[in-house]
Amino acid sequence: MRKFDVIVLGAGAAGLMCAAVAGQRNRRVLLVEHNTQPGRKILISGGGRCNFTNIHCTPANFISENPHFAKSALALYEPSHFLELVERYGIKWHEKTLGQLFCDHSARQIVDMLLAECERGHVEVLLNARGIAVEGTSGAFRVECSAGMFTAGALVVATGGLSIPKMGATGLVYELAQQFGLKVVEPRPALVPLVLGGREKSWVELAGVAADVTVHAGSGPKFREKLLVTHRGLSGPAVLQASSYWRPGEVIHVDFVPDANGQGRLLEALRGDGGRRDAVAFKQELRAVLPQRLAGHLAEVGAPAGWSNLALDAAERNLRNWPFHPAGTEGFEKAEVTAGGVDTDGLNSKTMEARAVPGLFFIGEGVDVTGHLGGFNFQWAWASAVAAGREV
Ligand code: FDA
Q1: Closest ligand 1 atom to the C-alpha of 132?
Q2: pLDDT in tens, 145-174
Q3: 166-183 burial, b for 16+ CB within 10 Å, e for fewer?
Q4: What is the overall mean pLDDT for the chain?
């Protein structure tokens, strides 16, 4: 049985960062990972270039049952702090769009940087550790796995959410939370493509078509980005963003002509005196502002009920607030993140420590804090990891 000050479970974004911070405070840290390599999700993130943060990060970019919870940690460790670290390692980066920062070369540089930071903190990294089981209680935790038995006064759970099981995602964080009496907000796929069925199935014939739109689901905000029609339904950044707010049975609304400011502007030509009012003119108007295949489809499924001004107004309103009724999502296999997770009511927002179990910490995606698309999920991983790493 080997003794450490801190055991961190999961060598992903949050676990690597937390282990490094704690190690550099002279804590003896063991980082335990069941994959054969650390940071697998970092490696595939951002198309292999890792969108490692977002310079416009605010608490409003996160979804949680308690929208205030993330504030302290996000204020403690800001995007500029991570950027300082990236620059210290000479990693070249660029802003792609909307404040999203990416590596110029490879996500591998971020993993190497975090491993170098762990080395500076003399963190012991244990890979290929299978069948983790935890016992004990406050201040005296025992971790048993295929690689041996270990004890520590502090235990940090950083095993992430359920997204992409084939990369090693498991529900260990939820099991441990429940084992220690913490509540869990039901995990659900987020930043995930939506599936269309029934009469809306005809949309998939447009697979490959993309358009600049605004989308919103439920009480969520409107997202102005690209929508992409897929072989199963809808995707693209605007839909992925809205999916995090979508619940089964709800409608999502798409504005196909977000630049047509104000009602009555889109079909103006048809409404004018002596203007041609028929299906051909309607389609022509749509083709002027939308990708051709999309315009053709909408001209059929969104045709006005007649050619009066009232009917044209109704058709235009429909195009500006088009309702889709998703049959479901593409699930955890395709979800970029998992929403829900360890209920923040049970955690200290400054340290991520379980209120009822001193010495037990939960960080990263396993906690009920989910970022928008665009580098926010990594920023939460870094910030929650630093909060815990400074406390353990
Ligand atoms: P993370 O999943 O990174 O790490 C958890 C670790 O725990 C893993 O190493 C896992 O193997 C290990 N583990 C799990 N179960 C275990 C068990 N039972 N025993 C031992 N170890 C266990 N975000 C962003 O901000 N910008 C981006 O560009 C992207 N891009 C992106 C692309 C794709 C394809 C995906 C799937 C996700 C993204 N994300 C993203 C999201 C981002 O990757 C994610 O939010 C963070 O990696 C979460 O960090 P964590 O450390 O919490 O979990």
Answers
A1: 19
A2: 999 999 999 999 999 999 999 999 999 999
A3: eebbebbbbbbbeebebe
A4: 96
CATH code: domain 2-188+340-389 is: 3.50.50.60
Query: Is 194-329 a domain of CATH 2.40.30.10?
Result: yes
Instruction: Say yes or no: do domains 2-188+340-389 and 194-329 share a fold.
Output: no
Residues within a 6 A CB radius of ligand 1: 9-15, 33-35, 40-41, 44-46, 50-51, 132, 158-160, 163-164, 168-170, 172, 336-337, 364-365, 375-378, 381
Does pTM top 0.85 for this prediction?
yes
Domain boundaries, the chain: 2-188+340-389, 194-329
Å from CA of 253 to ligand 1 middle: 30
Tokens linked to 334: 């395709």
Q: Over the stretch 70-82, which tens digit does the pLDDT of each residue have? A: 999 999 999 999 9
Tell me how far apart the alpha carbons of residues 189 and 244 are, in angstroms, rounded to a whole number: 7
User: CA 7 to CA 25: how far, in whole Å?
Assistant: 14
Between the CA of 364 and the centroid of ligand 1 the distance, in Å, is: 8
CA atoms 12, 13, 18, 19: torsion sign: positive
Question: Which residue has the CA at smallest separation from atom 19 of ligand 1?
Answer: 34
